[in-house]
Amino acid sequence: MSQLEKKPLTNSSRTSNDEHQPVVLQPVQPKLAGSSPTKRFRFVKPNRSQLNMLAVLTLLGMAVAFWFLAPRDWITPNTDGLTTLNSESVREGNNRTNREAAITPFQDAQLERASEAAQTIIDEFVEYQDIIEKNQWGTDEHLKTYGSIIERTIKGDSLFTERRFDEADSEYKLALQDVKQLIDDMNTEFDHWVEQGTRALQDRDFESSLDAWTHAKAIKPLDQEVQAKLARVELLPKVNELIRESERARIKEDWVQALEHLNEVTKLDPLTLGITDRREEILEHIRSQDLNDSLTDGHEQLASNNFDSAEQIFTEILVDYPDNTAAQTGLQQVGRARQAAKIETLKVEAREKEDQLDMRGALKIYDEALALDNSLQFAIEGRQRVFEIVSVVNDMNDTLQDPHALSTDEVYDEAKNTLETAQSHRGHSEEYDKLLQSFADLVSYAGTQLPVVLISDEMTEVTLTTSHRIGSFQRHELTLRPGRYILHGTRDGWVDIRKTVIVQQDMDPVSIVCEEQI
What is the pTM of this model? Predict the structure, then answer.
């Protein structure tokens, strides 16, 4: 990890270190012979053969304990002539052999699970580690904190090689938490100095801006914005001096010199605030000095569509200089530009009328534009569009005013044709699109089939006038499109009955019965 100690332990390094860790055997205390939860211990005097066997077992136990508990250099011979490194290699080889012989499948699985869990944390830690190191983030104080975090990862590695997995996992997690917090702290501090530096640079405060951006660079030395702002800060003393010189020249009404100083500022630092306004103010004074300035002002007024002002300026020039061709040309340009602007204004106004679906007003404006120039394409197309939209809007409004008429197939087919034409103008205006959406929803709804239940007395002959004869029934179910229908009931000796029904969703059953005798 660059100038710091190292990156956290990887799976491979953990496995290697773990192979050198001795395994401590934990003897298991056997139960006392003859004891049970319900019986008290009863002393039995041993015979001689039993005493001899006990003595042998005791000596054997002491030998085993001495082997595991005594320091290795007490029992490993120290051969003269071997280096310390060779001695360590021999001991490590012996320890590895002993440990490999003692490791059980459960221990191997435990090591593998611990390695996988640790690697997940380490992978995330390395991502943050790369942010800091590749971008060279941090002041000396930050790097001191960072070094402490690395020490924690080293401690975690050490605990891991000792197979103290829970403690190692805790250290890795704390290191990850600490490095996240360190990055957050650096970003917060960096943003603070950037804000301070930006404000100071806008105020052209050299000392404050230099201090702020220097602090920001100390945290993120490779940040391009910081480097660019520091480059501007270095120019501030010269920029401030030029602005002061420009003000001195302005007080003396030396406009050319004042403008030159500001131009130098723009070359040094185009982002300096307020320079544009200062330059425009000086140029206004320069324009008032001679004829060329007046001509420039006249053309500027013309370019801004201030036709009356431009015409006045050129007319005043011609009073003093009647033969000035530039002023004469300027007046001609004003006339042409005024007419072009009038046409453009009519075009915008006509479109606004269309957007409001004020077709009568739009048509009037298009006619006015054609009176100025009968070849204007936008006015010709606009009139055609207005007539078509007026027709389709009227058709949609008529249908929306009587939506139940769509139950008739002929009316419904006409509505679909109207919808197709209307959709070709979708996007014409917000108001038009709202009307079109309402009409489209109605036509879509009118095309659905809704269930209708009819109730009668089995003696009344029922006919649906818009479709067919149904006959007599007690209950009759059918499906119809939404809209207005007429039911006709007849019965010999009884007065005919006509009933208008509006078919809609979730409607109640309809009763049709001849109830009055002749």
Answer: 0.39
